[in-house]
Design brief:
alpha/beta, GMP Synthetase, Chain A, domain 3, 2 domains, elongated
């Protein structure tokens, strides 16, 4: 079995001069970096005193699930002869907060909107079926302890031309 290792560097950037002297004395801001990649500006959710202009860990988790699914799906389409022309996903996640302040995700829903080149019924069915396989293969979805549902919408770039009925003559 192959093993892969990932490293990131997190830096808290929210010290306003007092450190964490009080609950309100510091910002929840941080940056995440990895190798020579641009840093990601993060903070806590605004519900927890975070900066709404920065990504929060919960959004990054939903984005990780969405992007992992997409990358597997695009791979599977390419090796199965399905030409994807566009792909977007308006993913959503739900987290429940417990009385003690802890919390957990209770589910994520991926809503892929995919445009494929072929309008053939068989291709459209295969394009939809590949979402299930992508979900099964997604590293991130396999690693979480809550349900991740995938509700794809597949459309053809150009509709099939109408076929002449048998009753129409030449």
């Amino acid at each position: 079995m192959k093993t892969h290792h990932y490293a990131t560097h997190l830096s808290w950037t929210g010290n306003t001069g007092e450190g964490t002297a009080t609950y309100k004395s510091y910002r929840r801001d941080f940056t995440v970096a990895s190798n020579a990649k641009p840093p990601i500006a993060g903070s806590s959710d605004p519900a927890f005193r975070g900066d709404p202009g920065r990504y929060n860990p919960e959004e990054l988790l939903v984005a990780s699930l969405s992007s992992c699914h997409m990358l597997w799906y695009l791979h599977l389409c390419s090796v199965n002869g399905i030409v994807v022309l566009s792909y977007s996903d308006d993913a959503t996640g739900t987290m429940e907060e417990n009385p003690d302040g802890s919390g957990q995700f209770t589910g994520v829903r991926l809503n892929p909107y995919v445009t494929v080149a072929s309008s053939e019924s068989e291709s459209l069915q295969k394009a939809e079926a590949l979402h299930e396989e992508a979900h099964h293969l997604c590293f991130i979805a396999r690693s979480v302890n809550f349900p991740v549902t995938v509700v794809p919408l597949i459309i053809a770039a150009t509709p099939s031309p109408p076929q002449a009925s048998k009753s129409e003559g030449k």
